[in-house]
Design brief:
By secondary structure, the protein is of the alpha+beta class. The chain has 13 helices and 16 strands. The chain has two domains: 189 residues, no CATH class; 181 residues, no CATH class.
Length: 401
């Protein structure tokens, strides 16, 4: 039989028992829609994490001490020297500490960062009110503070904080600026932070022991020139090894922004596949439903099979007809499942979950994959019933009626 005739016959057979076909379709519809919805959540999480990491800045290297090592301002100055590290564009040292910040009767434990002027530019912090820390503030060890948007809300609510005085670990500081919101990322909630001059942080707040008059650092943020992130990484590593006289294991670590993105992308990709696999279980259940209805159909249509074989239909014709019926059911269920999955993904997008918003991304590869898998499920679970129907002997089929 021609393919068009086989498809027409299969479609007529499917439509002859609409209720049973509809119930069978539900398994495929639910399976496909679950695959699309969950994979879109995983894909959305992946893109959201990537966007948040990229919001930290571009072409960044994060240099931190390890193995009891110490980084200092002298290290930061050496890295900013274009002779020693020509691939590094900007350097921003930082000194982190925990602080109790008090305004009036409202006090909070807020992460404190001692930074320099270039920190805001390198790490993509934008001042929404007032100004950021200036070179004069660093040189003068001034008691000035810039608030993250969440820190500002926690301390001042809707009031304007500029010019107000807050206490940081008991010392008075004047608020000179407020930053725009950046949200949470792999480095924590960057909005719930306060920033003061790095010199003030060291000499007045943290009061670490001097290292020959130098300031110990928590992190050195280095921004590489465009396209030179690998070169900058090698230059920073080589320079610090020479400065620290490292002969065996490094007493510092250098990680790039792209390394963080790649690691998290791999993790979220695995999560996405896992979510798709979990949802795919319902597709297998739907496939079992297809096999069940096709076996019932073979039993009910034994006479029809016998008559067709007696009239010259080949085993291949019978096999093709029943396989096409199974695949048609899967494809129709797949198409309807795609529509339902898209609707579900749109409804999930933006919903709050555990303090954050669900982000969903629907892409063509997800929908195509869902349709291909649904068709494959129909083909796989339709082969046995079709093979059973094709093996019926016409005389035995007619005799069983």
């Amino acid at each position: 039989m021609k393919l068009v005739a086989l498809v027409h016959t299969a479609w007529s057979s499917i439509g002859s028992n609409r209720l049973r076909t509809t119930l069978t379709l539900l398994g495929i519809i639910i399976g496909v829609s679950a695959v699309i919805a969950l994979m879109s959540v995983g894909r959305g999480a992946q893109e959201s994490i990537t966007a948040r990491i990229e919001s930290l800045g571009t072409n960044l290297l994060f240099i931190r001490p390890s193995n009891d090592g110490v980084l200092t301002m002298a290290d930061a100055r050496a890295l900013s020297n274009s002779v020693f590290a020509p691939s590094i564009k900007n350097v921003a040292p930082e000194l982190q500490a925990s602080a109790v910040v008090v305004f009036g009767e409202n006090g909070r434990n807020i992460p404190l960062f001692g930074v320099t002027t270039g920190f805001a530019r390198i790490r993509n912090f934008i001042v929404s009110q007032g100004e950021f820390i200036s070179p004069a503030h660093v040189i003068g060890k001034n008691n000035v503070v810039v608030l993250g948007s969440r820190a500002k809300e926690n301390l001042f609510g809707t009031r304007t904080p500029l010019g107000s005085e807050v206490l940081i670990n008991g010392l008075p500081f004047t608020v000179i600026g407020v930053l725009e919101s950046k949200g949470a990322n792999t480095l924590g909630n960057e909005d719930n932070r306060v920033f003061i001059p790095i010199s003030t942080a060291h000499f007045k707040v943290v009061r670490n022991a001097d290292l020959n008059g130098d300031i110990p650092l928590t992190t050195i943020n280095a921004q590489a020139k465009t396209g030179l992130i690998e070169s900058a990484n090698k230059e920073a590593t080589t320079l610090l090894r020479l400065r620290h006289k490292v002969t065996e294991e490094d007493d510092f670590t250098v990680s790039s922004q792209q390394t963080v993105i790649d690691a998290l992308a791999e993790t979220t990709a695995t999560l996405t596949v896992f979510l798709g696999a979990v949802a795919g279980i319902s597709l297998i259940v739907g496939g079992i439903g297809i096999m069940n209805i096709m076996l019932v159909s073979v039993t009910e249509r034994t006479k029809e099979i016998g008559i067709r074989k007696a009239m010259g239909a080949s085993r291949r014709d019978i096999l093709s007809q029943f396989i096409i019926e199974a695949v048609l059911i899967s494809l129709v269920g797949g198409v309807l499942g795609v529509g339902l999955g898209v609707i579900a993904s749109n409804l999930l997008d933006g919903l709050p979950l555990a303090g954050t918003q669900i982000s969903t991304v629907i892409s063509a590869d997800i929908t195509i994959l869902a349709l291909v898998v649904s068709a494959a499920i129909g083909l796989f679970f339709g082969i046995y019933p079709a093979s059973r129907a094709s093996k019926l002997h016409p005389i035995d089929a007619l005799r069983s009626v």
